Batch of 2 targets.
Target 1
Amino acid sequence: MTSKSSDPHFSSSNVDPAELAKFSDLAHRWWDTESEFRPLHQINPLRLNWIQTLVPLSGKKVVDIGCGGGILSDAMARQGAQVLGIDLAVKSLKVAQLHALEAGTQGVQYQEISAESLASQRAGQFDVVTCMEMLEHVPHPAAVVKACAQLVKPGGWVFFSTLNRSPKSFLFAIVGAEYVLNLLPRGTHEYGRLIKPSELADWVRDGGLELAQMKGMTYNPFTRVYAMNSDTDVNYLMATQKPMSS
Ligand code: SAH
Protein backbone atom coordinates (compact mmCIF):
# COMPACT_ATOMS: atom_id res chain seq x y z
CA MET A 1 0.00 0.00 0.00
CA THR A 2 1.39 3.41 -0.92
CA SER A 3 1.08 6.10 1.73
CA LYS A 4 -0.29 9.50 0.79
CA SER A 5 2.62 11.13 2.58
CA SER A 6 4.93 9.60 -0.03
CA ASP A 7 2.63 10.55 -2.89
CA PRO A 8 3.69 13.90 -4.31
CA HIS A 9 0.43 14.18 -6.26
CA PHE A 10 -1.78 13.84 -3.20
CA SER A 11 -4.40 16.53 -3.25
CA SER A 12 -6.55 17.15 -0.23
CA SER A 13 -8.84 19.66 -1.90
CA ASN A 14 -11.59 17.26 -2.87
CA VAL A 15 -11.92 15.43 0.43
CA ASP A 16 -14.19 15.95 3.40
CA PRO A 17 -12.29 14.64 6.44
CA ALA A 18 -15.54 14.27 8.39
CA GLU A 19 -16.87 11.95 5.67
CA LEU A 20 -13.70 9.85 5.75
CA ALA A 21 -13.90 9.67 9.54
CA LYS A 22 -17.44 8.25 9.38
CA PHE A 23 -16.14 5.30 7.41
CA SER A 24 -12.86 4.92 9.31
CA ASP A 25 -14.72 4.68 12.61
CA LEU A 26 -16.65 1.69 11.31
CA ALA A 27 -13.78 0.14 9.36
CA HIS A 28 -13.47 -2.95 11.54
CA ARG A 29 -17.02 -3.91 10.57
CA TRP A 30 -16.67 -3.77 6.76
CA TRP A 31 -16.89 -7.55 6.42
CA ASP A 32 -19.56 -8.10 9.07
CA THR A 33 -22.57 -8.76 6.85
CA GLU A 34 -24.99 -7.84 9.65
CA SER A 35 -23.29 -4.49 10.40
CA GLU A 36 -23.91 -0.98 9.08
CA PHE A 37 -22.49 -2.32 5.83
CA ARG A 38 -25.23 -4.92 5.42
CA PRO A 39 -26.90 -2.89 2.62
CA LEU A 40 -23.64 -2.87 0.61
CA HIS A 41 -23.23 -6.63 1.07
CA GLN A 42 -26.80 -7.16 -0.03
CA ILE A 43 -26.59 -5.04 -3.17
CA ASN A 44 -23.17 -6.39 -4.13
CA PRO A 45 -24.30 -9.44 -6.14
CA LEU A 46 -26.89 -7.29 -7.95
CA ARG A 47 -24.41 -4.62 -9.05
CA LEU A 48 -21.73 -7.19 -9.88
CA ASN A 49 -24.12 -9.14 -12.11
CA TRP A 50 -25.26 -5.97 -13.83
CA ILE A 51 -21.67 -4.90 -14.57
CA GLN A 52 -20.95 -8.35 -15.96
CA THR A 53 -23.93 -8.23 -18.32
CA LEU A 54 -22.26 -5.22 -19.96
CA VAL A 55 -18.58 -6.15 -19.63
CA PRO A 56 -17.36 -9.59 -18.58
CA LEU A 57 -14.74 -8.87 -15.94
CA SER A 58 -12.41 -11.81 -16.41
CA GLY A 59 -8.97 -10.57 -17.47
CA LYS A 60 -9.98 -6.89 -17.24
CA LYS A 61 -7.95 -4.15 -15.54
CA VAL A 62 -10.28 -2.48 -13.08
CA VAL A 63 -9.98 0.43 -10.69
CA ASP A 64 -12.55 0.75 -7.89
CA ILE A 65 -12.73 4.37 -6.65
CA GLY A 66 -13.72 4.80 -2.98
CA CYS A 67 -13.46 1.06 -2.47
CA GLY A 68 -13.88 1.14 1.33
CA GLY A 69 -13.34 -2.33 2.79
CA GLY A 70 -13.26 -3.82 -0.70
CA ILE A 71 -16.72 -5.40 -0.92
CA LEU A 72 -16.96 -4.80 -4.67
CA SER A 73 -13.20 -4.86 -5.42
CA ASP A 74 -12.88 -8.32 -3.89
CA ALA A 75 -15.91 -9.66 -5.74
CA MET A 76 -14.63 -8.34 -9.08
CA ALA A 77 -11.22 -9.93 -8.47
CA ARG A 78 -13.00 -13.21 -7.78
CA GLN A 79 -14.49 -12.93 -11.27
CA GLY A 80 -10.95 -12.90 -12.67
CA ALA A 81 -10.38 -9.15 -12.95
CA GLN A 82 -7.12 -7.47 -11.94
CA VAL A 83 -8.42 -4.92 -9.47
CA LEU A 84 -6.91 -1.84 -7.86
CA GLY A 85 -9.06 -0.50 -5.03
CA ILE A 86 -8.40 3.09 -3.96
CA ASP A 87 -9.73 5.13 -1.05
CA LEU A 88 -8.47 7.84 1.28
CA ALA A 89 -9.50 6.12 4.51
CA VAL A 90 -6.41 4.13 5.42
CA LYS A 91 -8.15 2.01 8.05
CA SER A 92 -10.63 0.76 5.48
CA LEU A 93 -7.81 -0.08 3.08
CA LYS A 94 -6.05 -2.10 5.78
CA VAL A 95 -9.24 -4.03 6.43
CA ALA A 96 -9.66 -4.62 2.69
CA GLN A 97 -6.13 -5.91 2.35
CA LEU A 98 -6.44 -8.15 5.38
CA HIS A 99 -9.67 -9.59 4.04
CA ALA A 100 -8.01 -10.41 0.71
CA LEU A 101 -5.25 -12.23 2.61
CA GLU A 102 -7.67 -14.14 4.81
CA ALA A 103 -10.02 -15.03 1.98
CA GLY A 104 -7.15 -15.84 -0.40
CA THR A 105 -8.44 -13.45 -3.05
CA GLN A 106 -6.03 -13.20 -5.97
CA GLY A 107 -5.65 -10.18 -8.22
CA VAL A 108 -6.65 -7.37 -5.87
CA GLN A 109 -4.46 -4.53 -4.58
CA TYR A 110 -5.30 -1.51 -2.49
CA GLN A 111 -3.76 1.96 -2.50
CA GLU A 112 -4.32 5.17 -0.57
CA ILE A 113 -4.63 7.75 -3.33
CA SER A 114 -7.28 10.10 -4.67
CA ALA A 115 -8.99 9.48 -8.00
CA GLU A 116 -7.61 12.76 -9.33
CA SER A 117 -4.00 11.87 -8.40
CA LEU A 118 -4.29 8.40 -9.88
CA ALA A 119 -5.69 9.93 -13.08
CA SER A 120 -2.65 12.18 -13.36
CA GLN A 121 -0.39 9.10 -13.12
CA ARG A 122 -2.29 6.38 -14.95
CA ALA A 123 -4.67 7.98 -17.45
CA GLY A 124 -6.21 5.60 -20.00
CA GLN A 125 -4.89 2.46 -18.30
CA PHE A 126 -8.08 0.75 -17.12
CA ASP A 127 -10.71 -1.28 -18.98
CA VAL A 128 -13.27 -0.68 -16.27
CA VAL A 129 -13.69 2.00 -13.59
CA THR A 130 -16.22 1.60 -10.78
CA CYS A 131 -17.21 4.40 -8.43
CA MET A 132 -20.02 3.18 -6.21
CA GLU A 133 -21.78 4.96 -3.34
CA MET A 134 -18.91 7.43 -3.11
CA LEU A 135 -19.77 10.59 -5.07
CA GLU A 136 -22.29 11.74 -2.46
CA HIS A 137 -19.48 11.90 0.11
CA VAL A 138 -17.08 14.27 -1.72
CA PRO A 139 -17.15 18.08 -1.93
CA HIS A 140 -16.67 18.20 -5.73
CA PRO A 141 -18.13 15.04 -7.26
CA ALA A 142 -17.80 16.39 -10.82
CA ALA A 143 -14.00 16.32 -10.42
CA VAL A 144 -14.14 12.64 -9.43
CA VAL A 145 -16.31 11.85 -12.45
CA LYS A 146 -13.76 13.63 -14.65
CA ALA A 147 -10.92 11.63 -13.09
CA CYS A 148 -12.84 8.39 -13.74
CA ALA A 149 -13.25 9.44 -17.38
CA GLN A 150 -9.49 10.05 -17.61
CA LEU A 151 -8.61 6.69 -16.04
CA VAL A 152 -10.58 4.56 -18.51
CA LYS A 153 -9.26 3.41 -21.89
CA PRO A 154 -11.09 4.37 -25.08
CA GLY A 155 -13.91 1.84 -25.45
CA GLY A 156 -13.81 1.07 -21.71
CA TRP A 157 -16.60 1.28 -19.17
CA VAL A 158 -17.19 3.51 -16.14
CA PHE A 159 -19.88 2.59 -13.61
CA PHE A 160 -21.34 4.96 -11.04
CA SER A 161 -23.91 4.51 -8.32
CA THR A 162 -25.22 7.07 -5.90
CA LEU A 163 -28.35 8.43 -4.21
CA ASN A 164 -30.85 10.69 -5.93
CA ARG A 165 -31.75 14.04 -4.38
CA SER A 166 -35.52 13.71 -4.38
CA PRO A 167 -38.29 13.98 -1.77
CA LYS A 168 -38.66 10.20 -1.94
CA SER A 169 -35.00 9.70 -1.27
CA PHE A 170 -35.12 12.10 1.71
CA LEU A 171 -37.94 9.99 3.09
CA PHE A 172 -36.53 6.53 2.33
CA ALA A 173 -32.73 6.90 2.25
CA ILE A 174 -32.38 9.34 5.14
CA VAL A 175 -35.45 9.28 7.41
CA GLY A 176 -36.31 5.63 6.69
CA ALA A 177 -32.86 4.04 6.55
CA GLU A 178 -31.13 6.14 9.23
CA TYR A 179 -33.92 6.99 11.69
CA VAL A 180 -36.67 4.38 11.35
CA LEU A 181 -35.08 1.13 10.21
CA ASN A 182 -31.60 1.89 11.59
CA LEU A 183 -30.01 0.33 8.51
CA LEU A 184 -27.34 3.05 8.43
CA PRO A 185 -25.85 5.24 11.18
CA ARG A 186 -27.53 8.65 11.53
CA GLY A 187 -25.73 11.27 9.48
CA THR A 188 -24.44 8.79 6.88
CA HIS A 189 -26.00 10.83 4.09
CA GLU A 190 -26.49 14.58 3.90
CA TYR A 191 -29.47 15.56 1.75
CA GLY A 192 -27.72 18.51 0.09
CA ARG A 193 -24.90 16.27 -1.12
CA LEU A 194 -27.18 13.83 -2.92
CA ILE A 195 -27.02 13.91 -6.71
CA LYS A 196 -29.81 14.01 -9.28
CA PRO A 197 -29.40 11.69 -12.26
CA SER A 198 -29.52 14.73 -14.58
CA GLU A 199 -26.56 16.27 -12.72
CA LEU A 200 -24.53 13.07 -12.91
CA ALA A 201 -25.43 12.71 -16.59
CA ASP A 202 -24.11 16.25 -17.23
CA TRP A 203 -20.79 15.51 -15.49
CA VAL A 204 -20.53 12.23 -17.41
CA ARG A 205 -20.98 14.06 -20.71
CA ASP A 206 -18.57 16.84 -19.66
CA GLY A 207 -15.98 14.12 -18.98
CA GLY A 208 -16.40 12.79 -22.54
CA LEU A 209 -18.28 9.65 -21.52
CA GLU A 210 -21.49 8.35 -23.09
CA LEU A 211 -24.40 7.21 -20.96
CA ALA A 212 -25.15 3.60 -21.92
CA GLN A 213 -27.62 2.45 -19.29
CA MET A 214 -29.30 3.64 -16.12
CA LYS A 215 -30.84 1.39 -13.45
CA GLY A 216 -32.62 1.92 -10.18
CA MET A 217 -32.46 -0.03 -6.96
CA THR A 218 -35.24 -0.42 -4.41
CA TYR A 219 -35.43 -1.86 -0.90
CA ASN A 220 -38.44 -3.67 0.50
CA PRO A 221 -38.35 -3.16 4.28
CA PHE A 222 -40.79 -6.02 4.88
CA THR A 223 -38.87 -8.71 3.01
CA ARG A 224 -35.54 -6.89 3.59
CA VAL A 225 -34.66 -7.57 -0.03
CA TYR A 226 -33.09 -5.22 -2.59
CA ALA A 227 -34.04 -5.35 -6.25
CA MET A 228 -32.61 -3.75 -9.36
CA ASN A 229 -35.21 -2.19 -11.61
CA SER A 230 -36.12 1.06 -13.37
CA ASP A 231 -37.05 3.05 -10.24
CA THR A 232 -34.29 5.64 -9.98
CA ASP A 233 -36.03 7.85 -7.38
CA VAL A 234 -33.72 6.78 -4.53
CA ASN A 235 -30.72 4.55 -5.42
CA TYR A 236 -29.53 4.50 -9.00
CA LEU A 237 -26.64 3.30 -11.13
CA MET A 238 -25.21 4.53 -14.43
CA ALA A 239 -23.17 2.58 -16.94
CA THR A 240 -21.12 4.84 -19.18
CA GLN A 241 -18.59 4.24 -21.92
CA LYS A 242 -15.68 6.17 -23.34
CA PRO A 243 -15.95 6.36 -27.12
CA MET A 244 -13.27 4.48 -29.08
CA SER A 245 -12.12 7.74 -30.61
CA SER A 246 -12.98 11.18 -29.33
N1 SAH B 1 -17.54 1.80 -2.95
C1 SAH B 1 -17.69 0.98 -1.77
C2 SAH B 1 -17.76 1.78 -0.47
C3 SAH B 1 -18.79 2.87 -0.44
S1 SAH B 1 -18.76 3.80 1.10
C4 SAH B 1 -18.90 0.11 -1.94
O1 SAH B 1 -19.84 0.52 -2.63
O2 SAH B 1 -18.94 -1.00 -1.40
C5 SAH B 1 -17.98 5.32 0.55
C6 SAH B 1 -16.46 5.24 0.49
O3 SAH B 1 -15.98 6.44 -0.10
C7 SAH B 1 -15.78 5.12 1.84
O4 SAH B 1 -14.90 4.03 1.84
C8 SAH B 1 -15.02 6.44 1.99
O5 SAH B 1 -13.80 6.32 2.72
C9 SAH B 1 -14.77 6.78 0.54
N2 SAH B 1 -14.48 8.19 0.28
C10 SAH B 1 -15.09 9.28 0.76
N3 SAH B 1 -14.51 10.40 0.27
C11 SAH B 1 -13.51 9.98 -0.55
C12 SAH B 1 -12.54 10.65 -1.36
N4 SAH B 1 -12.53 11.99 -1.45
N5 SAH B 1 -11.68 9.91 -2.07
C13 SAH B 1 -11.71 8.56 -2.00
N6 SAH B 1 -12.59 7.86 -1.26
C14 SAH B 1 -13.47 8.57 -0.53
Target 2
Amino acid sequence: MNTRSFLTKLGATSIAIASFTVASLISLHAADKKLTVGFAQVGAESAWRTAETESIKSEASKRGVNLKFSDAQGKQENQIKAVRAFIAQGVDAIILAPVVETGWEPVLREARRAKIPVVLVDRGIKTADESLFATLIASDFVAEGRMAAEWLAKKTGGKASIIELQGTPGAAPAIDRKKGFEAGIKAHHEMKIIASQSGDFRRSGGKEVTEALLKGSGASVTAVYAHNDDMALGAIQALEEAGKKPGTDVIVLSIDGVKGAFEAMVAAKLNCTVECNPLLGPMAFDAVEKALKGEKLPKKTVVQDRVFDSNSAAAELPNRRY
Ligand code: GZL
Protein backbone atom coordinates (compact mmCIF):
# COMPACT_ATOMS: atom_id res chain seq x y z
CA MET A 1 0.00 0.00 0.00
CA ASN A 2 1.44 3.38 -0.94
CA THR A 3 1.40 6.28 1.48
CA ARG A 4 -1.49 7.98 -0.27
CA SER A 5 -3.86 5.00 -0.12
CA PHE A 6 -2.72 4.31 3.44
CA LEU A 7 -3.71 7.84 4.44
CA THR A 8 -7.06 7.54 2.64
CA LYS A 9 -7.79 4.31 4.50
CA LEU A 10 -6.74 5.87 7.79
CA GLY A 11 -9.06 8.79 7.11
CA ALA A 12 -11.99 6.49 6.37
CA THR A 13 -11.34 4.48 9.52
CA SER A 14 -11.22 7.57 11.71
CA ILE A 15 -14.45 8.85 10.18
CA ALA A 16 -16.05 5.47 10.90
CA ILE A 17 -14.79 5.50 14.51
CA ALA A 18 -15.91 9.07 15.00
CA SER A 19 -19.41 8.44 13.64
CA PHE A 20 -19.70 5.27 15.74
CA THR A 21 -18.75 7.27 18.85
CA VAL A 22 -21.24 10.03 18.03
CA ALA A 23 -23.98 7.43 17.40
CA SER A 24 -23.36 5.70 20.71
CA LEU A 25 -23.26 9.02 22.53
CA ILE A 26 -26.60 9.95 20.99
CA SER A 27 -28.16 6.64 21.95
CA LEU A 28 -26.70 6.88 25.47
CA HIS A 29 -28.22 10.33 25.73
CA ALA A 30 -31.59 9.01 24.52
CA ALA A 31 -31.46 6.27 27.14
CA ASP A 32 -30.55 8.94 29.68
CA LYS A 33 -33.58 10.98 28.71
CA LYS A 34 -36.08 8.27 29.62
CA LEU A 35 -38.26 9.90 32.24
CA THR A 36 -38.56 8.44 35.70
CA VAL A 37 -41.82 9.30 37.45
CA GLY A 38 -42.95 8.26 40.93
CA PHE A 39 -46.67 7.60 41.47
CA ALA A 40 -47.84 7.70 45.09
CA GLN A 41 -51.24 6.01 44.99
CA VAL A 42 -53.79 5.88 47.84
CA GLY A 43 -54.35 2.12 47.78
CA ALA A 44 -56.77 -0.30 46.16
CA GLU A 45 -59.95 0.39 48.14
CA SER A 46 -62.36 0.52 45.19
CA ALA A 47 -62.91 -0.50 41.57
CA TRP A 48 -62.48 3.18 40.66
CA ARG A 49 -59.03 3.22 42.28
CA THR A 50 -57.93 0.08 40.44
CA ALA A 51 -59.00 1.67 37.15
CA GLU A 52 -57.01 4.81 37.95
CA THR A 53 -53.87 2.80 38.78
CA GLU A 54 -54.27 0.85 35.54
CA SER A 55 -54.67 4.06 33.53
CA ILE A 56 -51.48 5.61 34.97
CA LYS A 57 -49.47 2.41 34.53
CA SER A 58 -50.55 1.78 30.95
CA GLU A 59 -49.97 5.39 29.92
CA ALA A 60 -46.47 5.27 31.46
CA SER A 61 -45.56 2.20 29.43
CA LYS A 62 -47.09 3.68 26.28
CA ARG A 63 -44.83 6.73 26.65
CA GLY A 64 -41.74 4.74 27.66
CA VAL A 65 -41.73 6.30 31.14
CA ASN A 66 -39.97 4.44 33.91
CA LEU A 67 -42.73 4.40 36.56
CA LYS A 68 -42.06 3.84 40.23
CA PHE A 69 -45.34 2.82 41.85
CA SER A 70 -46.23 2.95 45.52
CA ASP A 71 -49.47 1.73 47.15
CA ALA A 72 -49.98 3.50 50.51
CA GLN A 73 -52.74 1.13 51.67
CA GLY A 74 -54.92 4.09 52.59
CA LYS A 75 -52.39 5.64 54.99
CA GLN A 76 -51.08 9.18 54.56
CA GLU A 77 -47.89 8.35 56.49
CA ASN A 78 -47.06 5.69 53.87
CA GLN A 79 -47.70 8.15 51.07
CA ILE A 80 -45.42 10.74 52.66
CA LYS A 81 -42.70 8.08 52.99
CA ALA A 82 -43.17 7.14 49.32
CA VAL A 83 -42.85 10.76 48.18
CA ARG A 84 -39.66 11.14 50.28
CA ALA A 85 -38.25 7.97 48.74
CA PHE A 86 -39.01 9.28 45.23
CA ILE A 87 -37.18 12.53 46.07
CA ALA A 88 -34.20 10.58 47.42
CA GLN A 89 -34.10 8.51 44.21
CA GLY A 90 -34.03 11.71 42.16
CA VAL A 91 -37.12 11.02 40.04
CA ASP A 92 -37.95 13.60 37.33
CA ALA A 93 -41.52 14.16 38.56
CA ILE A 94 -44.05 12.88 41.07
CA ILE A 95 -47.73 12.08 40.58
CA LEU A 96 -49.61 12.13 43.88
CA ALA A 97 -53.21 11.07 44.62
CA PRO A 98 -53.39 12.48 48.16
CA VAL A 99 -55.43 10.32 50.53
CA VAL A 100 -56.49 13.30 52.68
CA GLU A 101 -56.52 17.06 52.15
CA THR A 102 -54.22 18.31 54.89
CA GLY A 103 -50.66 17.74 56.11
CA TRP A 104 -48.79 17.89 52.81
CA GLU A 105 -46.76 21.09 53.09
CA PRO A 106 -43.51 19.74 54.62
CA VAL A 107 -42.98 16.94 52.10
CA LEU A 108 -44.08 19.06 49.14
CA ARG A 109 -41.59 21.72 50.21
CA GLU A 110 -38.91 19.03 50.09
CA ALA A 111 -39.95 18.16 46.53
CA ARG A 112 -39.85 21.82 45.54
CA ARG A 113 -36.39 22.22 47.05
CA ALA A 114 -35.26 19.25 44.93
CA LYS A 115 -36.92 20.92 41.87
CA ILE A 116 -39.20 17.92 41.31
CA PRO A 117 -42.64 18.96 39.99
CA VAL A 118 -45.64 17.33 41.69
CA VAL A 119 -48.83 16.68 39.72
CA LEU A 120 -51.87 16.01 41.92
CA VAL A 121 -54.43 13.61 40.50
CA ASP A 122 -58.02 12.88 41.54
CA ARG A 123 -57.94 14.49 45.02
CA GLY A 124 -56.94 17.99 46.02
CA ILE A 125 -55.11 19.31 49.07
CA LYS A 126 -55.63 22.26 51.39
CA THR A 127 -52.71 24.66 51.36
CA ALA A 128 -52.10 28.38 51.41
CA ASP A 129 -49.12 27.86 49.08
CA GLU A 130 -50.36 26.65 45.71
CA SER A 131 -46.86 26.79 44.26
CA LEU A 132 -46.24 23.49 46.09
CA PHE A 133 -47.84 21.57 43.23
CA ALA A 134 -47.78 22.03 39.46
CA THR A 135 -51.45 21.28 38.83
CA LEU A 136 -54.46 19.27 40.03
CA ILE A 137 -56.46 17.05 37.68
CA ALA A 138 -59.76 16.05 39.32
CA SER A 139 -63.53 16.04 39.17
CA ASP A 140 -65.67 18.67 40.86
CA PHE A 141 -66.85 16.66 43.87
CA VAL A 142 -69.22 19.36 45.15
CA ALA A 143 -70.97 19.30 41.77
CA GLU A 144 -71.16 15.50 41.90
CA GLY A 145 -72.86 15.62 45.32
CA ARG A 146 -75.26 18.30 44.11
CA MET A 147 -76.13 16.30 40.96
CA ALA A 148 -76.88 13.25 43.15
CA ALA A 149 -79.16 15.35 45.40
CA GLU A 150 -80.99 16.89 42.44
CA TRP A 151 -81.56 13.48 40.91
CA LEU A 152 -82.94 12.15 44.23
CA ALA A 153 -85.19 15.17 44.75
CA LYS A 154 -86.70 14.63 41.33
CA LYS A 155 -87.10 10.89 41.80
CA THR A 156 -88.77 11.16 45.24
CA GLY A 157 -90.73 14.37 44.75
CA GLY A 158 -88.57 15.99 47.41
CA LYS A 159 -89.31 13.48 50.16
CA ALA A 160 -86.69 11.10 51.55
CA SER A 161 -85.17 9.76 54.78
CA ILE A 162 -81.57 9.30 53.78
CA ILE A 163 -78.66 7.21 55.04
CA GLU A 164 -75.40 8.80 53.86
CA LEU A 165 -72.32 6.60 53.49
CA GLN A 166 -69.30 8.87 53.59
CA GLY A 167 -65.90 8.22 52.06
CA THR A 168 -62.59 8.29 53.91
CA PRO A 169 -62.63 10.98 56.64
CA GLY A 170 -60.57 13.99 55.58
CA ALA A 171 -60.48 13.03 51.88
CA ALA A 172 -61.48 15.75 49.41
CA PRO A 173 -64.21 13.66 47.71
CA ALA A 174 -65.76 12.75 51.10
CA ILE A 175 -65.82 16.37 52.29
CA ASP A 176 -67.06 17.83 49.01
CA ARG A 177 -69.60 15.15 48.09
CA LYS A 178 -71.19 15.71 51.50
CA LYS A 179 -71.16 19.47 51.04
CA GLY A 180 -72.66 19.31 47.53
CA PHE A 181 -75.36 16.84 48.53
CA GLU A 182 -76.39 18.85 51.59
CA ALA A 183 -76.60 21.99 49.48
CA GLY A 184 -78.71 20.12 46.91
CA ILE A 185 -81.33 18.90 49.40
CA LYS A 186 -81.48 22.16 51.39
CA ALA A 187 -84.46 23.58 49.55
CA HIS A 188 -86.44 20.36 50.07
CA HIS A 189 -87.68 20.38 53.65
CA GLU A 190 -88.86 16.79 53.55
CA MET A 191 -85.47 15.45 52.51
CA LYS A 192 -83.45 14.61 55.60
CA ILE A 193 -80.18 12.81 56.26
CA ILE A 194 -81.23 10.58 59.18
CA ALA A 195 -77.83 8.89 59.62
CA SER A 196 -74.36 9.51 58.20
CA GLN A 197 -71.18 7.52 58.71
CA SER A 198 -67.94 6.65 56.94
CA GLY A 199 -67.57 3.37 55.07
CA ASP A 200 -64.05 4.37 53.93
CA PHE A 201 -64.90 4.07 50.20
CA ARG A 202 -64.93 0.25 50.59
CA ARG A 203 -67.64 -2.25 49.77
CA SER A 204 -67.14 -3.99 53.14
CA GLY A 205 -67.38 -0.61 54.90
CA GLY A 206 -70.63 0.22 53.09
CA LYS A 207 -72.13 -3.12 54.07
CA GLU A 208 -71.12 -3.01 57.73
CA VAL A 209 -72.20 0.61 58.28
CA THR A 210 -75.57 0.06 56.56
CA GLU A 211 -76.18 -3.11 58.61
CA ALA A 212 -75.52 -1.21 61.84
CA LEU A 213 -77.55 1.86 60.84
CA LEU A 214 -80.56 -0.23 59.78
CA LYS A 215 -80.73 -1.53 63.36
CA GLY A 216 -80.51 1.96 64.87
CA SER A 217 -80.83 5.55 63.70
CA GLY A 218 -81.33 4.60 60.04
CA ALA A 219 -84.22 2.17 60.55
CA SER A 220 -86.76 4.36 58.72
CA VAL A 221 -84.55 4.78 55.63
CA THR A 222 -86.08 5.38 52.21
CA ALA A 223 -82.85 6.26 50.35
CA VAL A 224 -79.14 5.46 50.59
CA TYR A 225 -76.66 8.01 49.23
CA ALA A 226 -73.13 6.57 49.04
CA HIS A 227 -70.02 8.64 48.24
CA ASN A 228 -68.88 5.85 45.92
CA ASP A 229 -70.26 2.84 44.06
CA ASP A 230 -68.38 0.24 46.08
CA MET A 231 -70.07 1.36 49.31
CA ALA A 232 -73.45 1.40 47.54
CA LEU A 233 -72.90 -2.19 46.39
CA GLY A 234 -72.11 -3.13 50.01
CA ALA A 235 -75.26 -1.30 51.17
CA ILE A 236 -77.34 -3.21 48.61
CA GLN A 237 -76.17 -6.48 50.16
CA ALA A 238 -77.00 -5.23 53.67
CA LEU A 239 -80.47 -4.07 52.59
CA GLU A 240 -81.21 -7.43 50.99
CA GLU A 241 -80.03 -9.29 54.07
CA ALA A 242 -82.36 -7.10 56.15
CA GLY A 243 -85.28 -8.20 53.95
CA LYS A 244 -85.56 -4.94 51.96
CA LYS A 245 -85.62 -4.51 48.20
CA PRO A 246 -82.85 -2.09 47.19
CA GLY A 247 -83.81 -0.07 44.14
CA THR A 248 -87.52 -0.36 44.98
CA ASP A 249 -88.21 -0.15 48.76
CA VAL A 250 -85.08 1.89 49.25
CA ILE A 251 -83.63 4.13 46.50
CA VAL A 252 -79.85 3.68 46.22
CA LEU A 253 -77.59 6.20 44.50
CA SER A 254 -73.85 6.74 44.42
CA ILE A 255 -70.88 8.23 42.60
CA ASP A 256 -68.13 6.84 40.28
CA GLY A 257 -69.90 5.03 37.44
CA VAL A 258 -67.93 1.78 37.58
CA LYS A 259 -69.07 -1.26 35.61
CA GLY A 260 -70.39 -2.97 38.77
CA ALA A 261 -72.72 -0.01 39.32
CA PHE A 262 -74.10 -0.27 35.79
CA GLU A 263 -74.69 -4.00 36.28
CA ALA A 264 -76.52 -3.26 39.54
CA MET A 265 -78.65 -0.64 37.75
CA VAL A 266 -79.52 -3.12 35.00
CA ALA A 267 -80.50 -5.56 37.79
CA ALA A 268 -82.70 -2.73 39.21
CA LYS A 269 -80.89 -2.72 42.58
CA LEU A 270 -79.06 0.59 42.15
CA ASN A 271 -81.01 3.60 40.89
CA CYS A 272 -78.40 6.15 39.90
CA THR A 273 -74.67 6.79 39.66
CA VAL A 274 -72.84 10.05 38.99
CA GLU A 275 -69.79 9.35 36.86
CA CYS A 276 -66.33 10.30 38.11
CA ASN A 277 -63.72 9.50 35.46
CA PRO A 278 -60.65 7.58 36.76
CA LEU A 279 -58.86 7.34 33.38
CA LEU A 280 -56.46 10.13 34.26
CA GLY A 281 -53.20 8.64 32.88
CA PRO A 282 -53.02 10.60 29.59
CA MET A 283 -53.80 13.94 31.26
CA ALA A 284 -51.40 13.26 34.13
CA PHE A 285 -48.44 12.57 31.84
CA ASP A 286 -49.28 15.51 29.57
CA ALA A 287 -49.06 17.65 32.69
CA VAL A 288 -45.78 16.03 33.78
CA GLU A 289 -44.21 16.69 30.38
CA LYS A 290 -45.40 20.30 30.31
CA ALA A 291 -44.19 20.95 33.86
CA LEU A 292 -40.76 19.55 33.00
CA LYS A 293 -40.57 21.86 29.98
CA GLY A 294 -41.29 24.75 32.31
CA GLU A 295 -44.69 25.47 30.74
CA LYS A 296 -47.27 27.18 32.91
CA LEU A 297 -50.17 24.92 33.84
CA PRO A 298 -53.65 25.80 35.12
CA LYS A 299 -53.89 25.19 38.89
CA LYS A 300 -56.84 22.88 38.28
CA THR A 301 -58.21 20.92 35.36
CA VAL A 302 -61.78 19.79 36.02
CA VAL A 303 -62.77 16.42 34.63
CA GLN A 304 -66.37 16.45 33.31
CA ASP A 305 -68.90 14.02 34.80
CA ARG A 306 -72.34 12.76 33.74
CA VAL A 307 -75.34 11.30 35.57
CA PHE A 308 -76.66 7.84 34.67
CA ASP A 309 -79.73 6.09 36.04
CA SER A 310 -81.69 2.91 35.47
CA ASN A 311 -83.18 4.41 32.29
CA SER A 312 -79.80 4.91 30.60
CA ALA A 313 -77.82 2.07 32.23
CA ALA A 314 -78.45 -0.80 29.81
CA ALA A 315 -77.54 1.25 26.73
CA GLU A 316 -74.39 2.59 28.40
CA LEU A 317 -73.11 -0.67 29.98
CA PRO A 318 -71.30 -1.97 26.84
CA ASN A 319 -69.43 1.35 26.55
CA ARG A 320 -68.01 1.32 30.07
CA ARG A 321 -64.22 1.05 30.11
CA TYR A 322 -63.84 0.60 33.87
C1 GZL B 1 -62.36 10.26 43.27
C2 GZL B 1 -61.73 9.41 44.29
C3 GZL B 1 -62.53 8.42 45.00
C4 GZL B 1 -63.50 7.57 44.24
C5 GZL B 1 -63.51 6.37 45.08
O1 GZL B 1 -61.53 11.11 42.61
O2 GZL B 1 -60.72 9.96 45.00
O3 GZL B 1 -61.69 7.54 45.70
O4 GZL B 1 -64.77 8.07 44.18
C6 GZL B 1 -62.10 6.24 45.42
O5 GZL B 1 -64.14 5.27 44.56
O6 GZL B 1 -61.72 5.27 46.22
